[in-house]
Each structure stands twice: as C-alpha cells, then as structure tokens.
Amino acid sequence: MRDDVLEIGPWIPGVVPRVALVALVAGASAALGLAAGWQAAAVAAVIIGAVWPRTGLAWFSLVVVPLAVLWQPIDLGHTMIAVAALHLGHVLATMMLAVPVRSRVSLAALRPTAIRLVGVQVVAQALAVVAIVLPRADGAGLAWAAPLGACAVAILAVLLLRGLDTPRHPEPRAPREQSFE
Predict the structure, then answer these.
(1) Sign of the alpha-carbon dihedral angle for 164, 166, 167, 169
(2) CA angle centred on 102, ends 9 and 94, rounded to 5°
(3) What is the pLDDT of residues 88-110, one digit of tens each?
(4) Which residue, 76, 85, 158, 179, shows the most beta carbons closer than 10 Å to its own?
(5) Helix (H, G, I), strand (E, B), or coil: what is residue 86?
(6) Is 17 in contact with 92 (CB distance < 8 Å)?
(7) What is the pLDDT of residues 53-79, one digit of tens each?
(8) At 105, which helix (H) or strand (E)?
(9) Is 120 exposed, middle or buried (0-12, 13-18, 19+ CB in 10 A)?
(10) Left, alpha or beta for 9 (phi > 0: left; psi -120 to 50: alpha)?
(11) Burial class (CB in 10 A: 0-12, 13-18, 19+), 118
C-alpha cells in the first residue's frame, strides 16, 4: 500500500495563492497611484497575512484598494482595476485559509472558483462602467443606487438563508405500522 500514488492531474503548489495575493496587492496599489507609505503598509500587511492567514491581515491589506479610488478624481480605469483587485484579492485570501502551503491544488478543483470569479467580474465591471459613465444631473451620480443595492443584497441574503432551512435530501419516513386485525 505504500507504493500507491494519488493522481490529481495538473496542479499548482499551495504557495501560489499566497504569492499571487502579495503580487496583486503590490501591483494594484502601485497601479492606483497610492503614496509610498500606504503601498509599504499594504505590502507589509499582505506578506504577514500570507505567512499567517488566520490573522486576517490579507483582507486588511485590501483596504488600500478602495481608499486609493476614493482619494483620486473619478477615473474609469482606476475603478475597474479596484473592482478586479478587490474581488480577486478576496478570493485568494479565502483560498489561503483552506490551502496549506506545502499542498498541491488540482487545477480541476480551481475550475468552479475561476468560473464564478469571471461571472462576478463580468457583472461587476459592467456596473462599474455604468456607474462612471452615466451622466450626473446634479453632481450626485448614482448615489441613490447605494441604498437600493443594499436593500437588494439584504433581500437576496434573506432568500438564500431561507433556502438553507429546507433540506435538499429529505430523510426517509419510517414505515407506518399496519395492523391486520
């Protein structure tokens, strides 16, 4: 039994999500034009978070991405970079919690995550373009959409949580006792 080998097909080392997250945060903070101090803080936080994922510093390092967008004039390119970096950063940080450093991750196992990532990015990038491109009548832009979106997310969360209560595979019923008297 010791000679058995588990074949998983094409794979990547478990350290790849950590390295990719460090590169993502460093690249996004540089591309968004953050001050050197903020870039250094973000990179230091993501490195510590990559070494010790349970600290949550990987997610904390992503805070600089929306801050970089807020501190600058409105720009479609920066907004699109921020949306992509924030989402991909969250996915990679979450993977770090589940994937040990010395493990191997099958590319087939990453396929569903990649498909969801692309699907969400298509919608999110389209919404970012609409939010930036729409004309502003009074300078407020799409400020009215934030509470509307929050309500939509809350309703969706309630619907999804209600779906968790219903069993997908109901337990078999016990047979009724029959009397033949």
Answers:
(1) negative
(2) 85
(3) 999 999 999 999 999 998 999 99
(4) 85
(5) helix
(6) yes
(7) 999 899 899 988 888 888 888 888 998
(8) strand 104-106
(9) middle
(10) left
(11) exposed
